[in-house]
Amino acid sequence: GQNIDQPTEMTATEGAIVQINCTYQTSGFNGLFWYQQHAGEAPTFLSYNVLDGLEEKGRFSSFLSRSKGYSYLLLKELQMKDSASYLCAVSDSNYQLIWGAGTKLIIKP
Amino acid sequence: DTEVTQTPKHLVMGMTNKKSLKCEQHMGHRAMYWYKQKAKKPPELMFVYSYEKLSINESVPSRFSPECPNSSLLNLHLHALQPEDSALYLCASSGGGSSTDTQYFGPGTRLTVL
User: What is the mean pLDDT of residues B87-93?
Assistant: First the structure.
């Protein structure tokens, strides 16, 4: 079967760094996406990885290891507005997105 | 510009009503999607249109009827819904019709079925 695992909830402090992990087992792999979703709002695109390595975009970075079926999203200099759910999604062999359940990130002052 | 718009923002309907959700994008994207999302759950794919043709229907009940009038518009017609259909309905679009293209989401329609 297809499976994506990420922690249900994480807590971090404003100004700190947090790493959200995602492991996947899918039928095929055509890339991994990270989305941010604030409560009651739509998901917004953060990053896309298809090759191994680190992609950096401002305060956010995303890493992929295809051999390990593993990715992480790294958020630096955390701000209160980063409190949201972070969704990991994998494009499988049929180019369909398989979604993780999301990680709720709580930022404390 | 990565904007996808959806109307209405909120919708309350009875089980005997007929209503429609609308989605529009002007990014020249060739694929458009309908998702359903329940609280604290990830989006659940309902339909995919690729080049204005229905390419994926994830066994969605017939009380949900999609329509793609042109490459920029996507509708979801609702009829005889059940209370369990209450959810956030998200529209998304992507460039070339495969999921390796980034999907951009609209703000969603919060649907309540009484």
Answer: 96
User: What's the pLDDT score for residue B36?
Assistant: 97
Q: Which residue in A96, A98, A105 has the most chain B C-beta atoms within 10 A of its own C-beta, making it the best mutation to test that interface?
A: A96
β-partners of residue B20 are B77
Mean pLDDT along residues B13-24: 95
Collect all residues of chain B within an 8 Å Cβ-Cβ radius of residue A50. 100
Mean pLDDT of A51-73: 96
Residue A60 is classified by DSSP as E
Mean pLDDT of B59-78: 95
Measure in Å the smallest separation between the Cα of B32 and chain A Cα atoms: 13
Q: Which of B38, B99, B111 to mutate to test the interface with A (most CBs of A within 10 A)?
A: B99
